[in-house]
């Protein structure tokens, strides 16, 4: 099962992710700290189950669910809340919530609910497959609109568990520019130029481009580090995991991933000692998205 967690509380997200991973319930393909920030990555990744907090800034859990459904999201929702108001709980159920997880987070409750949700999801998928088979003659042959560069990047980052990280938007801006406007071939321009381009694109009238460029570099570095942690965690659990097998050796120095895996297995997480090669990561991401984009268009 593929999970996505939306909660503005860091401790809750960390605990839920740990329970899912340690209980072999599936993988967490992304996280977001607010409903507004979760919309794009969820629609791009299309996870099976979304664990979403009821009360959040900007968009609350119910409003976020409504927007996702309006955009065609078909996955299941599990609401996270410490609210016991019957009216709010009733509204959540009418909007499509399948189960509730109560705060403070309890491991036994989470494991039980997620197992039930997974069984229900698999049953629905089986029924859907049967319905699609019966209706195959009436299936529309209209070709789907190709994905945009943004959607392609988010999908790729989702497989590495970082679609919801703050640096993902900076990466999207860089890749969009490289694919559509850069004419330097397969080799990247200096990273400094890419950071400055992204800074100017985000805020054309920014007074201190150099300061924002440095902030972009740090956000991208932290995001890549999160990808290393995610893939190493997958590899430590299942060395044959398809996401681990594909992304770990292509986007990173594989020995760094192996070292990180060993630290995790030994109960350590020495992220400060991991070498983050931003240029290699962006280079591979650019070439993959460029190839997919030109194939689609």
From TrEMBL:
Entry-linked Pfam families: Response_reg (PF00072), YcbB (PF08664)
Gene3D superfamilies membership: 3.40.50.2300
Modified residues (4-aspartylphosphate): 53
GO biological process: phosphorelay signal transduction system
Presence of keyword ATP-binding: no
Domain of life per record: Bacteria
InterPro entries: CheY-like_superfamily, Sig_transdc_resp-reg_receiver, ST_Response_Regulator, YcbB
Record-annotated Response regulatory domain positions: 2-118
Key word Amino-acid biosynthesis present: no
Keywords: Phosphoprotein
Family annotation (PANTHER family): TRANSCRIPTIONAL REGULATORY PROTEIN GLNL, TWO-COMPONENT RESPONSE REGULATOR
UniProt name for this protein: Two-component response regulator, controling glutamine utilization
Annotated source species: Bacillus thermotolerans
